[in-house]
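Propose amino acids for all 153 sites.
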């Protein structure tokens, strides 16, 4: 027996995203007491084997929303800049209690930065106060300055 794959329409995705954001706006903590493993990739990375593993105290929905928040904050500073996995992992490990793994983690949940941008970035993501960190904009500015220096060399 064959099963038809039902396409998920854009309205369903937006409704789910808004529900997640609304729940996070009223949450007392991002953490649920569990630990999760993730691997970051990017659809358009020149080297598709460039994967970055890390552990986090956040569920998949929270992690996707958090990464979307970081990417959205970056575009608020410079709209043309596309963040790299290394920058996201550095922010997560510095500001959000995540731990980078030097070794691959079996059964890690994959988060693709391009897919994350397409599915999770929404202006309301910036209203989640639990995502905000004073140091985040400074780190983003530093990444942008480093990129400008590379271009000018």
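Proposal:
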């Amino acid at each position: 027996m064959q099963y038809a794959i039902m396409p998920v329409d854009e309205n369903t995705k937006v409704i789910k995203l808004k529900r997640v954001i609304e729940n996070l706006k009223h949450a007392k903590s991002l953490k649920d007491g569990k630990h999760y493993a993730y691997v970051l990739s990017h659809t358009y990375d020149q080297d598709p084997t460039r994967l970055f593993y890390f552990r986090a105290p956040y569920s998949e929905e929270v992690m996707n929303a958090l990464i979307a928040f970081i990417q959205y904050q970056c575009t608020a500073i410079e709209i043309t800049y596309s963040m790299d996995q290394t920058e996201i992992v550095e922010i997560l490990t510095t500001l959000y209690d995540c731990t980078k793994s030097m070794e691959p983690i079996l059964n890690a949940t994959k988060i693709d930065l391009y897919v994350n941008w397409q599915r999770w970035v929404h202006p309301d993501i910036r209203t989640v106060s639990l995502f905000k960190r004073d140091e985040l904009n400074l780190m983003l500015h530093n990444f942008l300055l480093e990129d400008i220096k590379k271009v000018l060399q």
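The longest helix spans residues 60-77. The radius of gyration is 16 Å.
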